[in-house]
Fold this sequence. Notes:
Elements: E1 3-8, H1 12-19, E2 24-29, E3 34-38, H2 52-59, E4 63-73, H3 76-89, E5 96-103, H4 109-125, E6 129-131, H5 141-147, H6 149-152, E7 153-161, E8 164-173, H7 176-183, H8 198-208, E9 215-218, H9 225-233, E10 237-241, H10 244-261, E11 268-272, E12 285-289, H11 303-324, E13 331-341, E14 344-346, H12 349-355, E15 361-363, E16 372-375, E17 382-391
Parallel strand pairs: 5-6, 5-7, 9-10, 9-12, 10-11, 12-13
Antiparallel strand pairs: 1-3, 1-4, 2-3, 4-8, 7-8, 13-14, 13-17, 15-17, 16-17
Helix pairs in contact: 1-8, 3-4, 8-9, 9-10
Amino acid sequence: MKSYLFVLGRNPELSRAELLNFCEEVFYDSGKSLFIGENLKFENPRQIPREPEQLFLDRLGGTIRFGEVLGEFQNEEKVQEEILRFAQENKPEGKINLGVSAWGCGPNFLRHFLPEIKNAIREKFDRNCRIVNAPGENLDSGKIFGEKLLRNGFEFLVWKRGNSFLLAHTVANQNLRNYTLRDREKDFRDSKMGMLPPKLAQILINLANPTWEEKIIDPFCGSGTVNIEAAIMGYHTVGADIDAQRTKRSQENFEQMAEKFRYEKTSGEFFPCDVMKFPLAKLRGIVVAEGILGENFEREPSRARVEENANEVLSLWEKFFALLENSDIRVVSFCLPAWKINGRAVSLSEKLFAKLGKSSYIPRVLFGEQKTFLYSRPDAFVAREICVVEKK
């Protein structure tokens, strides 16, 4: 059975929670943001002509890259031998481009390991070897993408655990260009709506773990980010917004991205609608939404302003869940606002969960005993608190 080593993003616990819907966990290290998994679910509903490993990664918002484990070795010499064996089997032509990223190996590991492997490759293949790493530093996904390293060379992941070294060959890396297209290059973007990042939209969908028969429904569609990500994954999707102009522009975004990412424009349906009048009885699927985050504060808000925003957001979600009671909506994956005051986050989740106590929906545990996750930028005064609830 193949094992894979995953390099997780800046929110490793959230990345892990997402990943667990698509593979079995063997080992996880939160401090190093590394995850070993097996039995990966490779799916290609749109029949995209791409390697299964890259398709797997393209669906995930929280994983930076991953590699197939080649083995575990007792010393650096054995690691070098395995890298040489792998390179020889893959019959490189011309100059060999090589990168290595390492964890747990000590601060000076790459400074001596990379020159040694470079010399060994020159001797073995009698050709030049170019090391892509900056001196002594791991590679990041941007460097790998920019250098086209997985197409024109190799990257290896080395993780020292105890007295042995785990070695993996990188098989997939985040496509940063595609994320830029889906975010900054959308025709319609509105900062007043919070601008949900595509990666977070992916995570919200994946945490809900929909079946292929279920539609992805966003009754607060804004600029259509959730709908676009759902369609790229292969789902049919429905988007609505109380503002008819925003709904029209989100559909235009959806059609713009359909041209770039080759999904069917008909896989998305959009219409203007007040969320309290949303026709849930006619739809079967799951709700995935950023929802309403309240004011986009440019400086630290007062408690009075936070209280005012909190009451408005809580009232909206309480009414929406009452509307869901007679629907076939199985799961709701959404964001609540959390405001930063004096270095601490003011959360709404416990209040909302208490209000849901007598409803059909219960919060899902995301990891450990934690039912929510705070997704935040250091310079922002309003964070997103990720929640997933499901029908009993």
